[in-house]
């Protein structure tokens, strides 16, 4: 939404309601969100860290919970059925580091318990995680009469945190697979599923049986789902631009394109917001959100990272 008034910069804020009620700038992603929720049921999205994935999931949560007032003035406000509300279950592996299967299982059980409490559901006698998760989805559906919207943030972080220890990474992968294996048979209780992360693991290794999971990472329709476009900067953030070299902003930060040259390129939100706050250029995202696991793996394989600027690959490799 364009404005002539200077607002607050939403640096590090991942809560949709806080942004909408706290006087912050907000780039309206609801045109793309509307397309997403009406086209399919199971989605996967990969984006780098600090690119707005958590805010996207929280926006979806507020939308399906029917929090209409938060969407006033946004594209979707007059295009959404606010009378239909769905139970929303959100799981996240973004905080902390889990170094064992036991730690991962405890984190999962803790989140499942909290979700049961949110819906005032009775504790189930199940001892296994798939059983607890399956019961949660079924009971939430029965309690509300509506199928569940399931949002999973940083689905891959426990694996990536341990990627330099292959045995431990495999152990944690099996723990996550144990959780995600529930989704196929839970289909009658689900309305929408979206998993986000920074990497992509094959469906065979982590999502066995979930053959209808649609990967939208490189699809043109969703290239602007996260990140800021040139138009966003020139409209939403227009009050912040005086005194800054617009071409330099583009050269520094407009370097992400999820597809070929025909799709819209986007800016990293974290870089842009810190530039607007500090009023000087710098590699802000790289300083705090670098995928160290990837850098370490490249170093182990003797790959000189600056040479990656000249590497190209086919779409088929990225879509495996």
Automatic annotation (TrEMBL):
It comes from the Bacteria. Residues 10-207 form the AAA-ATPase-like domain. InterPro entries: AAA-ATPase-like_dom, P-loop_NTPase. Pfam families: AAA-ATPase_like. This is AAA-ATPase-like domain-containing protein.
